[in-house]
Amino acid sequence: MSTAATDPDLAGDGAPPQGFIRRAMRHRAFVIGFALTGGMVLSALVSLLWTPHSPTEIIIANRLKPPTAVHWLGTDQFGRDILSMIMAGAQTSIVVGLIAVSLGGIFGLALGLWAAARRGWTEDLIMRLSDLTFAFPVILIAILLTAGWGPGITNAILALGVINIPIFARLVRGTGIAMWEREFVQAARSAGKGRVRITFEHILPNITSVVVVQATISFAIAILAEAALSYLGVGSQPPDPSWGRMLSESQNFIFLSPLIAVWPGLAIVLSVLGLNLMGDGLRDLLDPRLARQR
Description:
single chain, mainly alpha, MetI-like fold
């Protein structure tokens, strides 16, 4: 039985309603967030092929230069071009965010769907493990994991991926349980469909929008967490550029050249702001009830 036929609030088993692009262009927060996020992605893509200077080239004679026509954002304490480092650092942030959120999303989605479908002791076990994780701050857990596994971008990604698992699991479990009570699912069960088939044919398509919104928000959190780990020296390691490590290295020279701390901080702020705004916009646009109000 088709979900759209039984539930007027949902169109096409979780597909965005018609006119999504037209409504998105009218949603100010989404447009601003999409532009900021697009700028970060474009910067990372361009840096794969070109940067104004090598982001790892050290020229001591050019250290702590102010913005000029040659170095648009100036240079750091080692004479490296700041704009080139920020462009290359966007690669690190995007890679960490994508892989960490994907790992957390895949395993969290599976656990959440399992808990919603099985209920009973299975649900209790998964949720109690999630509660144990939520008892500690995200950054603290990431620091503990990277400290145990050793510093490096790979371990930072794994740590952030582990942290995202209970976040997605709890969200999917709560949304999935609500879906299991809907009329179209009850009709599918009456038709003889098993739990696995119902999960993939009805539950999963109708919670996709919620997962997408959470992935966008988790992406922003992952960028912040990666910057914090790199700032503390347990994230990205030299010579790979990282916004967090740029902040850490600049703190001893902030009174000599304040801009070397401003630029990476601004890159982090704008990227996280863009992802949060885009996530809020997607939440409004993909919610059928809010969509009809626009």
